[in-house]
Amino acid sequence: MRHRLAYIFPLFVAPLLLAAAGLFVLVFDLLPTPLARFMDVSVWLFALIGGLLAFSYARTRNFFAVLMVLVTYLALMQLVHQPVINRTPAAIPPELSYLLISFLLPLLLTINSLWTERFHLLQDLFLRLAFLGLPALILVAVAHRFPAELADFFARIYFPAIHVEKLRMAQIPALAFLLSALILMIQLIRNPQPYFASQWVALVSMMLMLPYFHAGHAPALITSLAVLMLSLAVLHEAFHMAFRDDLTGLPGRRALNERLQRLGRNYAIAMSDVDHFKKFNDTYGHDIGDQVLKMVAAQLNKVSGGGKAYRYGGEEFTLVFPGKTAEEARPYLEKLREAIEAYQVRIRDTASRPADNKTGKQKRHGSQADSVSVTISMGVAERTSELNSPEEVIKAADKALYKAKEAGRNRIALFK
Ligand SMILES: Nc1nc2c(ncn2[C@@H]2O[C@H](COP(=O)(O)OP(=O)(O)OP(=O)(O)O)[C@@H](O)[C@H]2O)c(=O)[nH]1
């Protein structure tokens, strides 16, 4: 859980900074006039950029999140702001439109984010449009036919004891926002992706903005920022895909190559490899092999002493220690080796457990029931006058790793 939080926290940085900047500007009324005039355009501009980015990376989920935030803003302006402020006539009473908007936004965003991209791009777009448009159309039709009843249903305070007046929102929409925020947070914890973090912040920002639909440039500014967060999430995800290893979440080979180009004059590099992993895979199956690789990666990711872990490929990992010699890096590596040796991975994949109950019981017997462990070997080398490029240091670390394997595995060898 702790290593998961370490992945999740950075995902919030950009969206929270944007939200905080928006709030700061609004509270202290700092929006310069030329920029304020740009606000109405910026909603469209950011939505266009976000939509195009999402579309070109085939992220239909992001595309619809951007679209829904944009439609929410337009509906708020046309169906609530205009009739209330400019007293233009409206087919549905603006109070009811407001209630419907504040209910539909969290509902549709949640359906959209629970729905993973599974189909062909156009098929997915069409299905989403139909499934997300349908509840909205039904509610609009009911609103035309029974406006008073629907308004009463949405605006009624069902539980006065837990009503939060400060939210300035009826209980059903508030509950929809709360549930949506909860579901998104669970999705984020289970699957740390920039999309969920950005959508969470965008959702909360939109929720806080809705009651201020009449307040100058506030709706346009907050909507622009929400769309910008969702657009940045697409870029962040593209970056993740290119630089992060999908299985372990560690930076991958490409990120390592980038890092190697920026190392200074002194550094140590360790190559580490899971011991007898082929046999492990053959015994427990590839899925449990994957679970073990994730555990190894999570442990290596905790490296201290200024080191950084990368997945080199397969069951091989690289640790880079800028400014350290191999001897200086050794104690930090030793700590990792010990932690991995001691770690018991619980086997969650029931399919790969022994099928018959008797064998299963035998396997589960004893204190180590349903868990497995592995060891790793490491080879370390440092930059010297003979090894003066990162590639040469990696080759030397690989040679040392081979020595560690030959010497019995579950140990660290220094290149000499
Ligand atoms: N489950 C799983 N296995 C992988 C993955 N990548 C590589 N492997 C397996 O890792 C194993 C590596 O085997 P070897 O390099 O021969 O290592 P070994 O001989 O078992 O062990 P040592 O001699 O101790 O290095 C192969 O069986 C690969 O299929 C992965 O992403 N997931």
From TrEMBL:
Residues 350-359 have a biased composition (Basic and acidic residues). Residues 265-416 form the GGDEF domain. It comes from the Bacteria. It catalyses: 2 GTP = 3',3'-c-di-GMP + 2 diphosphate. It is an enzyme of class 2 (transferase). One of its GO terms (cellular component) is plasma membrane. One of its GO terms (molecular function) is diguanylate cyclase activity. One of its GO terms (biological process) is negative regulation of bacterial-type flagellum-dependent cell motility. The chain crosses the membrane at residues 7-28, 34-55, 62-81, 96-115, 127-147, 167-188, 195-214, 220-239. This is diguanylate cyclase.
